[in-house]
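Collaboration report, partner site 2.

Our partner group contributed sequences for two proteins of shared interest, and the home lab folded both. The records are reproduced in the order in which they were received, starting with the first partner submission.
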Amino acid sequence: MAKKAIVFIHGLWIHASSWQPWMDFFNERGYQTLNPGWPGDSATVAECRANPQAIANRGVTEVADSYAKLIASLAEPPIVIGHSFGGLLTQVILGRGIAAAGIAIDPAPMKGVWQLPFSALKASLAVLGNPFNLKKAVSLSFDQFRYGFANAVPEAEARELYERWTIPAPGRPLFQAAFASIAGSETKVNTANSTRGPLLITGGEKDHIAPAVLGRASLKKYNSSVITEFKLFEGRGHSLIVDHGWKEIAGYALAWLGKNGF
């Protein structure tokens, strides 16, 4: 039986092309893969850096709708794998009932997850510290990337990841997540949907920007009648999909999909 397509969704500050090793990994195992960018993303890291305004002011719903449109063009509902804000978008899409299964890797918090660890607040201050960033595209300095993403890898590797993959990111999604408990429903996930596909949520033990407590809190929001699981990766930070240990995460994802008939 032919395997389902996989749609990969990147998060803030990391370009869609960072999924290429994952795509190769899953292609070699019989899956078809796609890694569409967010609205406004350019084809390369360099082009995104040269034209940040194209990425600015994009909100969660606009981005989710762009992926939903692509999914509608496929022959059947795909598997969706997302990282960080891409993990939140994975859950939004799965909640809409248009994906066969979802893997949310160290996801940004959905509406209703109220926990705010200090490290997550500190990692987000590059954007949230200035209200004028709402409609702008914001780049991370190396020190900010090192703290938020790459605190669990050697500094030399952190710098290589920063130079290779980072792009400006819209500030709007972070504001939408930060103020979801007060107003707005952009980060709301239909966790009550009992007809959705299975979901795996992961957390990294050393993740600063999306600590594992957020993933565990999201897990508790879901209807227990549908497969929903959480996996903690010990010793791993937020860069876990692009750093030297990415195959551990990809391998676990592959095994989980196989266990659930995908």
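Second partner submission, folded after the first:
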Amino acid sequence: MAAGEEEMTEEKRREGISVEVTEDGDCRRTISIEVEPGILEDEKTRVLAGLAKDVTIPGFRKGKAPKDTIRRRFAEEIHNEAVKSLLPDVYAHAVSSESLRPIGDPVFRDILIEDDEPLKFRVEVEVEPVIDLEGYKNVKVKTEEISVDDEEIDRVLESLRERHADFEPVEREAATSDVVVLDYIPSGDDGELDESKKVEDYPVQLGAGQLFPEFEEAIIGKKQGEEGSAEISYPDDYKPERLAGETVRYRFTVKEIKEKRLPEIDDAFAAKVDEKFTSLSELREDIGRRMKEEKEEEARRKMEEAAIDSILDANPFDVPGTMIDRYKGELEKEDEKRREMAGVGAEEDEEKKKEIDALFDRIARRSIKRFFLIDRIAGLEDFMVTDVDVEAEIEQIAAGSGRPADEIRSYFEKGGEQRRNLMGRIRERRVFDLILGREPEKKPEDGEEKD
């Protein structure tokens, strides 16, 4: 068949399909479709032609049986296969003709086929939200003055001082903040010490929450070489589970006590923090600069999210329920992991569970709306990210990190997920520049290759 004849046949086929779309809210759509009998018959003819090449019927060579014979013998199979192959094709036509953007798999319902009557069925599907935007440029949001005072710098210095503390052996009783080196042995089920589970040379800093309070209380006041015991009752939801709900007595020996010695905050300390500093004033200046940059970055994020909320309030739209459920599922998994790491069991209180579910629902809806909003603005403004943009970003990352540009470039290799994420960040930054009325980036020149 010539190309022109194929196009005419396809056009005629599409004319025999009627489509009606009903909005069900929350991005759900029901597509009611009718297909003229002739289209289904044409599909049966196609299926029959394919079947005739392979089927073997007694008395005929393979592929040589009369089609009328094959049609009678395999009528049900031909009918079912024709419907099976026709439904997704007709659905694709409906999606295209109605300019729908489906999310997830369609659900076919109420398939009705009667002799000499149109094939009728419904398709339920979720679609991307239709977003009609107004007032998304130069959004006014509250700004805050950024400053760093001496007290804040002093707190950072004190934290650095703690991190650079030395621990010197002492001959006295153990006290809070000391590092104590222990040998300890748990008792078995019979109350006897279980030598097979003995732990030797175990360091622990008292007061840092590394041990149960009962154990720390038993250690404090002991001197090097002294023994003691502590009884620990483990919570029912404790990890590992083999100890959950158990009460275990431990016998321990203090092998060494080390006292924390904090360094003086002076020029020598600055050099100890980083050899590039020759004086304490240089270190303070660097701390102040970094803190200001962090505060400015945090303020920028707050402004961006405030602008997003303002636009969303002015331009409400629904988001797909399946996306919300999926996002909430991820939040629940993360919450479960956090609880496990903290040794906390699942929430049992029903009211608390409802509050957590409501919180996750708000987070999911807002995050998904944010995604669609930024994508919509980027599409309206035709924000494209080119190879030139990515290369400039790589050079900037390299300059800021002090790492070779080739190393950064290798990390963001073409076609990789990291590169796609980087492109998304560049695109999002341009959207926020537009939203907040910041100086926009230079657009790529025409003809530049786009990723």
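Feedback sent to the partner group on the second submission included the following. The domain at 280-436 is CATH 1.10.3120 (Trigger factor, domain 2). DSSP finds 13 helices and nine strands in the chain.
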